[in-house]
Design a protein that fits this description.
By secondary structure, the protein is mainly α. The protein is built from 16 helices and no strands. Helices cover about 70% and strands about 0% of the residues.
């Protein structure tokens, strides 16, 4: 079916939707916000919790790797076989898995059981969404709008996620507040945040039950519904993009939020409250940049927006790693945050535009899987470098690799024009 707004006035979150977007996308936006809130505080608290139960920095990196590796495998399964199942059922199953993940981390203290839960669960220690939810939600959102409206919709989706992740980072101060104002120990307060994460999973499950059946079916030229299908005509371009995105994600995995939090704690001695406030403000800057992304993309194109905002952001990351003082480092990281997220909605819109409607779910999965697999390797490398005393080297490597990715992406795709440019 063609995406079109339903008649009548819009209420609630539907008012945030751009013109030309099906209001049935609202539950997806609300679910994204809730998941991002949980991911926002988990990225800050996860290393502190793991250190509190006696794990070392290397083991923190291994657990972070397991969370991302598990997400990659689950996303690969969705891309390969997910078209055989109803998308709503898969989303609801993922939400229940999110609830089980929170309860698992809250109740376990040994390394190996936690590693298993990290591998099969939905915990996300990064600043972006690398979970199994991503391809399922993206394919449904892509069917709810066309052209520039689609880019604007993905910008709203990313914006809401960034804002809620920023609020979640601020909520990382809750355990310290509970310790000061209640009889809870710090470890029990940290465990309580995992229980809240489980409750968020149940709330997301409830939202997914409200999804209309038609969102995500796609449409053919004559308006008939198109069932999801595996990759076909778009296979070559999807694989090319997947290879390039994997380089970016490997680099990003060297400096995910959980490890960036550890870097700030180890190098400058920030408290959890101070780190949470920092990630709150960087999250707000990232959210603002995503809101600006559709405007910039309409002027200079999706690809140019992806590349020419990302390059200076990565230069700032390298300089921050070499900064001699905390204020300089934080200032450079703030500038980085104001620029580095513009590629998030534009990248998603770009992928959805270069494939056929039937291939969107598979394309989202097969571009996300190499990204998740590549990002899953690097936190362990960062953890090993942290343990060896090279705490700034992961940030430098991250910035340099991302600069190389930006240049390679622009060279490989600059001659292609897609819908929405």
């Amino acid at each position: 079916m063609s995406a079109a707004p339903s008649p009548g006035p819009r209420t609630g979150l539907a008012r945030l939707l751009p013109a030309g977007v099906d209001p049935g996308a609202v539950p997806l936006l609300a679910a994204r916000g809730l998941r991002a809130f949980g991911d926002g505080y988990m990225a800050v608290l996860l290393p502190a919790y793991l250190l509190s139960i006696g794990l070392g920095t290397l083991e923190v990196g291994i657990v972070a790797t397991a969370t991302m590796l598990g997400s990659a495998l689950a996303t690969l399964a969705v891309g390969a076989w997910g078209y055989r199942f109803a998308g709503g059922r898969l989303l609801r199953g993922a939400a229940l898995l999110m609830a089980a993940t929170g309860l698992g981390f809250a109740g376990l203290t040994s390394f190996w059981p936690l590693l298993i839960v990290a591998l099969v669960g939905t915990l996300n220690p990064s600043s972006g969404d690398v979970s199994v939810f991503l391809p399922l939600e993206h394919s449904r959102l892509a069917a709810a709008a066309q052209g520039h409206a689609r880019t604007a919709l993905f910008a709203r989706y990313s914006l809401l996620g960034a804002l809620c992740a920023a609020l979640g980072a601020l909520a990382a101060a809750v355990p310290d507040w509970l310790v000061r104002h209640s009889g809870l120990t710090r470890l029990d307060a940290l465990r309580g945040m995992f229980v809240v994460y489980a409750a968020i999973g149940l709330a997301v499950f409830w939202l997914y039950r409200k999804l209309p059946a038609h969102i995500g079916t796609g449409s053919s030229a004559n308006g008939a519904p198109v069932p999801p299908a595996p990759l076909g005509p778009s296979r070559r371009v999807v694989m090319r993009l997947a290879a390039l995105f994997s380089v970016d994600s490997f680099a990003g995995g060297l400096a995910i939020n959980a490890l960036m939090s550890l870097w700030l704690l180890e190098r400058f001695g920030l408290s959890l409250t101070q780190a949470g406030v920092f990630f709150f403000w960087t999250g707000l800057l990232g959210a603002a940049s995503q809101l600006a992304a559709p405007v910039v993309a309409q002027r200079i194109g999706l690809l140019n927006t992806m590349v020419f905002t990302h390059l200076p952001a990565n230069v700032c990351l390298v300089l921050a790693a070499l900064a001699p003082s905390l204020p300089i480092a934080l200032g450079l990281l703030m500038v980085r945050s104001a620029l580095s997220s513009m590629d998030v909605p534009t990248r998603t819109a770009y992928v959805m535009a270069v494939v056929t409607p039937a291939e969107r779910s598979a394309a989202a999965s097969f571009t996300a899987v190499p990204r998740s697999l590549a990002a899953a390797i690097s936190p362990t490398i960062s953890g090993a470098l942290f343990a060896a005393g090279w705490i700034s080297l992961p940030l430098i490597a991250c910035g340099l690799l991302k600069i190389g990715y930006d240049l390679a992406l622009w060279r490989a795709m600059r001659r292609d024009r897609v819908e929405g440019e």
